[in-house]
Amino acid sequence: MNPPLSVSAMNADPAELQKFSDLAHRWWDPESEFKPLHRINPLRLDWIDAAVGLNGKKVVDIGCGGGILAESMSARGAQVTGVDLSEKALGVARLHLYESGQTVDYRLIAAEALALEAPASFDVVTCMEMLEHVPDPASTIQACAALVKPGGQVFFSTLNRNLKSYLMAVVGAEYVLKLLPKGTHEYAKFIKPSELARHVRNAGLDVNELIGMTYNPLSEIYALGQDTDVNYLMRTTRHG
């Protein structure tokens, strides 16, 4: 039995929201601080599409930011809603629709609030590169589970917590390779796959697939594979 959803306390870190709001105007510049998101997006998009067949599906992207994934899912034929708590990021996302010609319903609303408003309304829920930025990831996961229809799929991606992930995702990516702005990630908020799996099961979801994402700094190529030591993605299904 899952505890009732509550929106009495906003599950957001003001400092995290400010961090991404300050960079929002650069979201769609593929050579900006968001370059890694542009580079990994085709990988995660193809992975999601292969699992669910996005065309014709009703999808919500939780923590959509400037809309890189949301727009690309719309381009694959999905009916997409994108939600975020950064007004600036959503403003950039809405403006980019005029350039791309895609259709996405962007909303300034918390995942928990949307789950109360529209439970079991979506075929697919995506929550990518977000859980490591919220105070209570279990609350976000519970909201994702509530939003998806029985039998529907929820996709997560986040960062593992170990010495290798600290060296690669924080020291390497932020300080050595400068792939990301300093302070993008807080190591203590990283989530082990076992922890994510526990949250997922507690929310009424089944774990179907766990894959890793790696980056080769020499070739500058990202790839999906078995190595979940740093970045990883999890595909789950809500009990029917």
From TrEMBL:
Catalytic activity: a 3-(all-trans-polyprenyl)benzene-1,2-diol + S-adenosyl-L-methionine = a 2-methoxy-6-(all-trans-polyprenyl)phenol + S-adenosyl-L-homocysteine + H(+); a 3-demethylubiquinol + S-adenosyl-L-methionine = a ubiquinol + S-adenosyl-L-homocysteine + H(+)
Domain of life assignment: Bacteria
Keyword Protein biosynthesis in record: no
GO biological process: methylation
Ligand binding (S-adenosyl-L-methionine): 44, 63, 84, 128
Pathway the protein contributes to: Cofactor biosynthesis; ubiquinone biosynthesis
NCBIfam families from the UniProt entry: UbiG
Protein name, per record: Ubiquinone biosynthesis O-methyltransferase
Naturally occurring in which organism (per UniProt): Zoogloea dura
Gene this chain is encoded by: ubiG
